């Protein structure tokens, strides 16, 4: 296919991962989950004893990590030094620690560089999602979308994802705390100039995918 970069940002629980993956399938494009890269660096620091408050050490971990992330929408796979960490990076301990990596500017710079290389490696035919894709990683993407949802809808989705293993109270604390920490470094709550806002609160997965594809058709 011809080059087509679709950039999708949004907070946790906005549904952006499932939506982006399915949009990539339908467009026969690659798919990049940038959050998985922040998670992989976080887990790597945790398992190798890197103090997450030590910025130079976290930056160095981001620079040296042997990280291999699948960009196929049909194969979810994250390898660190050849070990499969696809499931481990979703553990609650990683979710609560990941903002430490996300707020280390040197680590961000390195991950942004790797993300841009992966986008180039796809032949610029990719759906990339995260917090700063529309603004920093791929500001020149043909399609830029901010996927939002009310806090209520986001908490419901996160709860479903985790299989009801956590109380409503716990969930709310985790989701709002992570959003608050993330907001200190990337503004993913407000659409930048030229970014289309799509509110998915009242839409199911299929309807959201359809809405994104309509935006793609309108501009690309
Ligand atoms: O998307 P996900 O919730 O898996 O992202 C995990 C974390 O990675 C976010 O909470 C945020 O701290 C960080 N992140 C980021 N920039 C991105 C993607 C994720 O800072 N583009």
State the oligomer.
Answer: single chain
Q: Any ligands, ions or cofactors bound here, and which?
A: cytidine-5'-monophosphate
Instruction: Calculate the terminal CA-CA distance, rounded to whole Å.
Output: 12 Å
Helical/strand content category: alpha/beta
How would the global form be characterised?
Answer: globular
Number of helices: 9
Order of helices and strands: EHEHHEEEHHEHEHHEH
Strand content: 15-25%
Number of strands: 8
**Helix amount:** 40-55%
The low-confidence runs, each spanning 5 or more residues with pLDDT under 50, are: none
Rg value: 16 Å
Mean pLDDT over all positions = 94
Largest sheet: 5 strands, parallel
| Physical arrangement of strands within the biggest beta sheet | 2-6-1-7-8
Main location: cytoplasm
Subcellular location: Cytoplasm
Family: Belongs to the cytidylate kinase family. Type 1 subfamily.
Protein name: Cytidylate kinase
Describe this structure in words.
It is a single chain. The chain starts with a strand and ends with a helix. Helix 1 crosses helix 9, helix 2 packs across helix 4 and helix 4 packs parallel to helix 8. The mean pLDDT is 94. It is α/β, with parallel strands linked by helices. The longest helix is centred in the middle third of the chain and has 17 residues. The chain contains nine helices and eight strands. It has a five-stranded parallel sheet, sandwiched between helices. The site of cytidine-5'-monophosphate has 15 residues, from helix 2, helix 4 and helix 8.
């Amino acid at each position: 296919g011809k080059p087509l970069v679709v950039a999708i940002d949004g907070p946790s629980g906005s549904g952006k991962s499932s939506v982006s993956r399915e949009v990539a399938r339908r467009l026969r494009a690659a798919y990049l989950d940038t959050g998985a890269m922040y998670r992989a660096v976080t887990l790597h620091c945790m398992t190798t004893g890197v103090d997450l408050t030590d910025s130079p050490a976290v930056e160095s971990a981001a620079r040296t990590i042997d990280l291999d992330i699948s960009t196929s929408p049909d194969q979810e796979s994250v390898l660190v030094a050849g070990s499969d960490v696809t499931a481990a990076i979703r553990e609650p301990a990683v979710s609560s620690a990941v903002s430490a990596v996300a707020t280390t500017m040197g680590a961000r710079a390195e991950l942004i560089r790797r993300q841009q290389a992966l986008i180039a490696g796809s032949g610029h035919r990719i759906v990339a999602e995260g917090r700063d894709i529309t603004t920093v990683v791929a500001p020149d993407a043909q399609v830029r979308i901010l996927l939002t949802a009310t806090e209520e809808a986001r908490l419901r989705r996160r709860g479903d994802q985790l299989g009801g293993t956590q109380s409503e109270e716990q969930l709310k604390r985790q989701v709002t705390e992570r959003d608050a920490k993330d907001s200190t470094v990337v503004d993913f709550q407000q659409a930048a100039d030229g970014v289309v806002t799509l509110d998915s609160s009242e839409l199911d997965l299929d309807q959201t995918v359809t809405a994104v594809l309509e935006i793609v058709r309108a501009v690309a």
